[in-house]
Amino acid sequence: MAKLVSKTYGDALFELAVESDRVDEFFEEAKGILSILESNEEFVKMMNHPQIVKEEKVEILENIFLDRISRETVGFMCMIVEKGHFKDMKKVFRYFIDRVKEYKKIGVVYVAAAMELTANQKQAIEKKILETTEYVELEMHYSVDTELIGGLVIRIKDRVVDSSIRTKLQRLTSDLSKIQLKAGECNP
Fold first, then answer.
1. Pairing between strand 106-113 and 159-162?
2. Domains in the chain: how many in total?
3. Do both 12 and 98 map to the same domain?
4. Which end of the chain offers a freer environment for a tag, N or C, measured as fewer CB atoms within 10 Å?
């Protein structure tokens, strides 16, 4: 259900942003709102509290956001509250942000390496990804995973490129065990 809510509302906001030629503005507002929702647990708890009526929640949103972001985005948030879906608001804005990134051809890339990469290595990775994808901009997330032993694991959406030594060793071990099984089958 939450997936349907986030998609329905996220698509509606995206269509409004495109139709009104305000994708960048709504994109920045959505990132700011999401940041507030993720960092302010007390605010989220209050907005989800069952004893606070929807009208009060709408008033709270208007008081906080009306002079800070566009009226359309405030109205959108109020509509979500009026429909009883505040609990899904983070998911709605995440969905919208992901949709805008795809629209603007911004790739979100996760790179895991066995050790910290140098600036030159990062630049080479980014250059290669830009050359081999349709993305014009990248949002890079680097991490260190010492269990990889060496090499990289790169994830873009649902695609994974795994050139880690750990994976190569696992494949080699699997291949060797298959060879041993076949060799054992030949000798009665």
1. unpaired
2. 2
3. yes
4. C
Q: Which two tokens stand for residue 141?
A: 């997330």
Which residues are 159's β-sheet partners? 156
Q: Which domain holds residue 168?
A: 105-184
Mind listing the pLDDT tens digit of every residue in the chain (188 residues)?
567 899 999 999 999 999 999 999 999 999 999 999 999 999 999 999 999 999 999 999 999 999 999 999 999 999 999 999 999 999 999 999 999 999 999 999 999 998 999 999 999 999 999 999 999 999 999 999 988 888 889 999 888 888 777 777 777 777 777 776 665 565 55
Instruction: Return the number of other C-beta atoms located less than 10 Å from residue 97's C-beta.
Output: 20
Q: Are residues 118 and 64 in the same domain?
A: no
Please give the Cα distance from 110 to 28 (Å, whole number).
22
Give the global pTM.
0.81
Q: Strands 137-144, 159-162: parallel, antiparallel or unpaired by DSSP? A: unpaired
**AA letter at 57:** K
Q: How far apart are CA 125 and CA 70, in angstroms?
A: 38
Q: Looking at the structure, tell me whether residues 127 and 175 fall in a common domain.
A: yes
